[in-house]
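Lay summary. Proteins are chains of building blocks that fold into shapes, and those shapes determine what they do. In this project we predict the shape from the chain. Here is one chain we studied, written as its sequence of building blocks.
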Amino acid sequence: MTTKRIKNVNFFFNIGILFLFHTINGKTIHVPTDSLTIQSGIDGSFDGDTVLVEPGIYYENINFKGKNIILTSIFILTADTFDISHTIIDGDSSGSVVTFENMEDSTTILNGFIIRNGYNSDGGGIKCNNSNPILKIY
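And here is the predicted shape, written in a compact code that computers can read:
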């Protein structure tokens, strides 16, 4: 096995364990089935929950508001990069697309999205202040 393949296997194992932990200890909110928007999914979540987003383009700017949750596309279930390229958070040039600024910790995960069209001098795509989230970039 190549080193890259081993890293990928380890990554999927680790993220799978974390997803399972969150699922056992929290609920899963499905977007757009349970909540129409990603932000409403975040707003309705509690620490330990997972917000699971179906493919689509979501025109919004989201703020984790101090919630230690997993926000992920269905890539976490499929491991198919198609799901990343078709799950888009578009900030519509109206501020940071994703904001972490309320002491979110390392149990907060952003995973499996295209983030585009943010506009902010403090971080157009992702703004992170006083927080320590995990960002999964592919």
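What the prediction tells us: The chain has one domain: 3-136.
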